[in-house]
């Protein structure tokens, strides 16, 4: 299949999903396992609320992928959740393309918020996102009960 370089495509095949799952190990401090990501994407095909996307470089190798989900948050607002993102460091311009793509999807679904979480806690990362209108509004705290007992 001939693909347009850096174009964003909907991913729905076993091969797409497996290749995307391999990228989990390239994301720093990612707690998501390949198995969980695969199951999440596969379930998304059934529930029509989770969507996976990929792009490829001129060499036909995957250069980015991401998974989003549409749902209501706890206060009943419709939200777009960014579940997983991987972008090859050799393609920094894809960040802007993906941000614009996610914004377009959010408008199509008429969501009120775009929500994502990350363990990346660097000012450089936040500055990159702030220029697209994102802001840090919450910190996520966590307690591992197994370690306490």
Could you explain the architecture of this structure?
- This protein starts with 8 loop residues before the first strand and ends with a helix.
- It has five helices and five strands, in the order βααβββαβαα.
- The protein has a single domain, classed as Aminopeptidase.
- The chain is of the alpha+beta class and 149 residues long.
Summarize the structure.
The chain contains 5 helices and 5 strands; from the N terminus they run E-H-H-E-E-E-H-E-H-H. It is an alpha+beta fold and 149 residues long.
Topology summary:
Layout: E1 9-11, H1 14-22, H2 34-47, E2 50-56, E3 62-72, E4 78-87, H3 94-109, E5 113-116, H4 123-130, H5 145-148
Parallel strand pairs: 4-5
Antiparallel strand pairs: 1-2, 2-3, 3-4
Given helix and strand content, the structural type is alpha+beta
By DSSP, the count of extended strands is 5
Please give the share of residues in helix. Answer: 25-40%
Q: Specify Rg, calculated over alpha carbons.
A: 16 Å
Average pLDDT taken over every residue: 87
Q: Let me know the largest β-sheet.
A: 5 strands, mixed
First-residue to last-residue Cα separation? 54 Å
Strand content: 15-25%
Order of helices and strands: EHHEEEHEHH
CATH superfamily caption: Gcn5-related N-acetyltransferase (GNAT)
How are the strands ordered across the major sheet?
1-2-3-4-5
Number of helices: 5
- Named CATH architecture: 3-Layer(aba) Sandwich
CATH C-level label = Alpha Beta
Taken together, the total number of domains comes to 1
């Amino acid at each position: 299949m001939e693909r347009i370089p850096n174009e964003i495509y909907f991913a729905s095949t076993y091969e797409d999903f497996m290749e995307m799952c391999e990228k989990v190990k390239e994301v720093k401090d990612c707690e998501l396992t390949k198995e969980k990501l695969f199951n999440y994407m596969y379930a998304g095909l059934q529930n029509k609320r989770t969507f996976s996307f990929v792009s490829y470089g001129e060499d036909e190798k995957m250069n980015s992928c991401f998974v989003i989900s549409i749902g209501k948050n706890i206060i009943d607002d419709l939200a777009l959740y960014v579940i997983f993102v991987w972008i090859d460091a050799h393609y920094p311009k894809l960040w802007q393309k993906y941000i614009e793509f996610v914004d377009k999807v959010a408008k199509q679904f008429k969501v009120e918020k775009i929500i994502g979480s990350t363990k990346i806690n660097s000012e450089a990362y936040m500055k990159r996102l702030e220029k697209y209108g994102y802001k840090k509004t919450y910190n996520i705290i966590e307690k591992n009960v197994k370690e306490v007992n």
